[in-house]
Amino acid sequence: MRVRVPAKINLTLGVGPVAEDGYHPLTTVFQAVSLHDELTAQWDEPGAFSIAMWGEGVDQVAADDSNLAMRAARLVAERFGAEDQLGVRMSVKKSIPVAGGMAGGSANAAAALLACSVLWDLDADPEELRELGAELGADVPFSLMGGTAIGTGRGDKLVPVLTRGQHHWVLAVAEDGLSTPKVFARFDELTPDGGDLEMPTELMNALASGDSVALGKCLRNDLAAAAIDLRPRLQQTLEEGMEFGALGAIVSGSGPTCAFLCRNEEAAVALSVRLSAEGVARAVRRVQGPVPGARLIS
Ligand SMILES: C[C@@](CO)(OP(=O)(O)O)[C@H](O)COP(=O)(O)OP(=O)(O)OC[C@H]1O[C@@H](n2ccc(N)nc2=O)[C@H](O)[C@@H]1O
Ligand SMILES: Nc1ncnc2c1ncn2[C@@H]1O[C@H](COP(=O)(O)OP(=O)(O)O)[C@@H](O)[C@H]1O
């Protein structure tokens, strides 16, 4: 089985005050973008579970039972089958930056859920897989679903959002990742009463009409101040992207990847060339969104 799974950006990320379980209530709009990891899964001996990874940032991810794809495979086996009768050998080709605020780990978990449930011929429907996904991480249900969706709760309660057309994004990928729990912890220090959980009506209108100029003005992230506090260089990255012609700029999720919205493909090419030439980030990528969530490709 081969599964392709996209990265996400948060077009808006409203974060409420921390709850007793340590999680924050969110109002977020996710968009899946055309930067993909690929996971392959093949049968192995009963009880044998393994993973190999190559590509972007794999030295920062353990290929053991702590890996989110391994945890996903074991969870599917445990819930839908018999763990001691099933086995899988997985490999992941990573392109999504690790700890980049683009849900790379969640994407791999989503891919493993889908690949294993099909490989082992288990009777799991998409809704059941999304519920399992939510146990692994708040972003996993969206990695399965893809497209554009509003997320509430921990970010795991999803409703698709009506959109028109494709948007062109340029991503500035930072040298080192940022830890999601650390960014939320700094958010708590900076914003003890929490941020804004209002439904982003203007943003939804901009998405429905496909108006990139309006969308650029609505991008908002309550975690941005915390990410910038931990990584001050990000402020300059955002400013440079705007100076070089982006319609809007945002830190993606808990960062440090910055996403710049462009008017069209030509503008995205021009911005990516400029950002690369200025050495603003470790890598610059052009992507489009929305794209579908985790999908079997063979
Ligand atoms: C911030 C966001 C925005 O989409 O994305 P990333 O920047 O990680 O991609 C997500 O909320 C991250 O989702 P995900 O990375 O799946 O989170 P989890 O593994 O469930 O949780 C990691 C840690 O993040 C914090 N966390 C996560 C979600 C949430 N609603 N409130 C939280 O406080 C908790 O400290 C938790 O221990
Ligand atoms: N398969 C995986 N791919 C990426 N990260 C993983 C994976 N499994 C576990 N992790 C861990 O999850 C953490 C978050 O990574 P990631 O999901 O890439 O970033 P983010 O939460 O910023 O979107 C990292 O510390 C990483 O070591």
From TrEMBL:
Presence of the UniProt keyword Transferase in the record: yes
Active site (record annotation): K8, D139
Protein name: 4-diphosphocytidyl-2-C-methyl-D-erythritol kinase
Alphabetical list of NCBIfam families matching this protein: ispE, PRK03188.1
GO biological process, one term: isopentenyl diphosphate biosynthetic process, methylerythritol 4-phosphate pathway
Protein's pathway: Isoprenoid biosynthesis; isopentenyl diphosphate biosynthesis via DXP pathway; isopentenyl diphosphate from 1-deoxy-D-xylulose 5-phosphate: step 3/6
Domain GHMP kinase C-terminal: 205-279
UniProt function note: Catalyzes the phosphorylation of the position 2 hydroxy group of 4-diphosphocytidyl-2C-methyl-D-erythritol.
Gene: ispE
Keyword Ion transport: no
Pfam families: GHMP_kinases_C, GHMP_kinases_N
Organism of origin: Enemella dayhoffiae
Family that this chain belongs to: Belongs to the GHMP kinase family. IspE subfamily.
EC number(s) per entry: 2.7.1.148
SUPFAM superfamilies per record: GHMP Kinase, C-terminal domain (SSF55060), Ribosomal protein S5 domain 2-like (SSF54211)
Record-annotated GHMP kinase N-terminal domain positions: 67-147
Signal sequence region: none
Positions contributing to ATP binding: P97, V98, A99, G100, G101, M102, A103, G104, G105, S106, A107
Reactions this protein catalyses: 4-CDP-2-C-methyl-D-erythritol + ATP = 4-CDP-2-C-methyl-D-erythritol 2-phosphate + ADP + H(+)
This protein's UniProt keywords: ATP-binding, Isoprene biosynthesis, Kinase, Nucleotide-binding, Transferase
Lineage per the UniProt record: Bacteria, Bacillati, Actinomycetota, Actinomycetes, Propionibacteriales
GO molecular function: 4-(cytidine 5'-diphospho)-2-C-methyl-D-erythritol kinase activity; ATP binding
UniProt cross-references to InterPro entries, sorted A to Z: GHMP_kinase_C_dom, GHMP_kinase_C_sf, GHMP_kinase_N_dom, IspE, Ribosomal_Su5_D2-typ_SF, Ribsml_uS5_D2-typ_fold_subgr
